[in-house]
Amino acid sequence: MKQHFSGKIWIMGDDIDTDLILPTDYLALSSLDEMIPYVFAPIRPDFAALVKPGDILVAGKNFGCGSSREQASEVLGKLGLAAIIAKSYARIFYRNAMNNGLLLLENPFLYDDVSEGDEIVVDVGEKITYKGKEYDLQPIAENVLDILEKGGLVQAMRERTGRYNNG
Amino acid sequence: MSMTMGEKIIASAAGVKHVNPGEIHIVQLDKIMTNDATTHLTLDMYNHKLKYPRISDSSKVVFIIDHNFPADSPETAAAHRKMRLFANENNITIYEGKGICHQLMIENHVNSGELIIGADSHTCSYGALGAFGTGVGCTDFLYGMVTGTTWLMVPETIRFYLTGELHEGIYARDLMLTIIGDIGANGCNYKIMEFVGEGIEKMSVAERIVLANLAVEAGAKTALMEVDNKVTDFLAEHGRKPRQEFKSDAGARYAAEYYYNLSDIKSVVARPDHIDDVIPTNELSEIKIDQAFIGSCNNGRIEDLRVAASILKDHKVAPHVRLIISPASNDVYLQALQEGIISILNEAGAMIVNSNCSVCWGGCQGVLYANEVLISTGTRNFRGRAGHPDSKIYLGSAATVAASAIKGKIISETMFR
Questions:
Q1: Which of A15, A17, A68 shows the shortest C-beta gap to B120?
Q2: Which pLDDT score, from 0 to 100, does residue A29 have?
């Protein structure tokens, strides 16, 4: 996991629910690649075509609320987003994203200041820098960091499988 | 040290004497539930990504096919088949078409004091029986199935102290929408909502499920209520005895406390597209509807169907309105048949569909077209949740939905009568 990176930002609003991230119609498609074109279909249908790996999504409060559908965090990860930075997250989405190795960061002020297309610089666990102004980031909990560094919970699990075979 | 009942359940499942909010613990899981919205992905991970795939204890795992049932496309049929084969090969209990996952879990599996994860956000419903149920995604489900454990951060608890009694024509649904309207759609984010007081004691188990079920719509990790005679009786009717009864200590710490006098609660609806945009039903300007829905894990129980039948008896659904009703489980359906409720609803012009998630999740039934308006007892009114992104969903009680279906516009039971 990169500790220091910069990227172009995309902006989403408050209370972006997982039905908006990936509508019900596309959940049964057999692979993530088939689902990707429908990311944000109801509000931003061109998103998947425009976003580039390494871009950063900035959102308001309660990002990822609603349904536990993991496809929502998986498709966002699959697009290659370097991170999402929101005012706050709904808890199931938070776990799902981290479990898929998608970095989620929280800052209450950044969203109110930025404009789409701008660049920000991220130092994980320390700060975000935008137009010379710094925004604090909290350190990530150790067990979550472990999952992220291994690229997700399944990967982390593979490395620990021996233990579970005994247990 | 004093603890809340939620903290006590986590401590018990973690095998420690005491837990504090903010700590992360590994907990043993009592039940692990998943449904057909995501299980096909879980099984792909299980089969292709694990080095040593195994199931910790298949007797704790429950598969439920309820979201897209019967299958509406070859894709969903394939997802169902995958679940069916895996469950049979691995001795996992599977329900297919028997009802909505949370209703089936509450009828057949959930017990007080248990810690349960479900790959569905409304797993918090189990708090009505004094169990700590919380929703997870499919990767957390997979981890739980393989290891029998999960990690949990101990949440802070917010207490809701309920006094008084709901007026006639006012329901638990009105209360919970009112609370979410007050505190906001993330008002209890990462928290436990604990309901206490004489107000909750007077409520039936069905009403308590309504409150617990919608806790996630306020962002909560779960909701909890103490076990009392009503819960014990409910469990006995379903062949179970309470496993363990946890009560919050007198000195337990709460992040916040709210007080509600139930006699102040009015009939309310949540307006599109946000569940915390709540308004008294009688203050709405005229809203014409195209479709009405009674069902879902929130309001598809026999108590809701009785209320609907009492309003629809000797009336007809408005000519331009489609009223769709899905009993929450086969047991509920059968009970409604025996009580003559299904005939009343049918004669009024309602369509009774099989027990499934139905209109609530915009999957296989009753999908809306652009600009159509739905009044629903479903769990959510997100944009596009029941079909076209430009359709509109209002949420209310079964009584409000039934009355509105007759009038063709949104109206409370009291105004209707």
A1: A68
A2: 87
pLDDT at A75: 96
* B45: chain A residues, CB-CB within 8 Å: 154
Distance between alpha carbon B379 and the CA centroid of its chain, in Å? 7
Q: Is residue B334 predicted with pLDDT exceeding 90?
A: yes
**Per-residue pLDDT tens over the stretch B238-255:** 999 999 999 999 999 999
Query: Is B221 at the interface with chain A, CB within 8 A?
Result: yes
CA B217, CA B265: separation in Å to the nearest integer? 19
pLDDT level of residue A160 (50, 70, 90 thresholds) = low
The pLDDT confidence band at residue A166, using thresholds 50, 70 and 90, is very low
Handedness of CA B354, B360, B363, B367 (dihedral sign): positive
> Where does chain B hold its CATH 3.30.499.10 domain(s)?
5-261, 270-416
8 A C-beta contact, residue B299 and residue B377:
yes
Interface of A with B (CB under 8 A): 15, 17, 19-20, 23-25, 27-30, 41-43, 61-62, 65-71, 73-74, 88, 90-92, 95-96, 99-100, 141, 143, 152-154, 157-158, 161, 164-165, 167
Percent of chain B with pLDDT over 90: 97
What is the reported pLDDT for B11? 98
Whether B403 and B413 have beta carbons less than 8 Å apart is answered as yes
Q: Are the Cβ atoms of A91 and B190 closer than 8 angstroms?
A: yes
**Quick one: B5-261 is in which CATH superfamily?**
Aconitase, domain 3 (3.30.499.10)
In this complex, is the C-beta atom of B340 within 8 Å of any C-beta atom belonging to chain A? no
Nearest CA in chain B to A63: B186
Phi-psi group of B385: left, alpha or beta (phi > 0 → left; psi -120 to 50 → alpha; rest → beta):
alpha
Q: What is the DSSP string of B135-198?
A: E--HHHHHHHHHHSEEEEEPPPEEEEEEES-PPTT--HHHHHHHHHHHH-TTTTTT-EEEEESH
Q: Which phi and psi angles does B98 have, rounded to 5°?
A: -90, -10
Please state the ipTM of this predicted complex.
Answer: 0.90
| Closest in A28, A92, A165 to B73, CB measured | A28
Amino acid at B162: L
Q: How far is B156 from chain A (nearest CA, A)?
A: 13
In whole angstroms, what is the distance from residue A68 CA to residue B370 CA? 26
Indicate which CATH number applies to the domain containing A79: 3.20.19.10
CATH code matching the domain that covers B270-416, chosen among 2.40.160.20, 3.90.660.10, 3.30.499.10, 3.90.1720.10: 3.30.499.10
Domain, as residue range, for A40: 4-166
| Calpha distance B224→B164 (Å, rounded) | 19
Cβ–Cβ gap A24/B385 under 8 Å:
yes
Of B121, B186, B363, the CB nearest to A62: B186
Query: How many separate domains does chain A show?
Result: 1
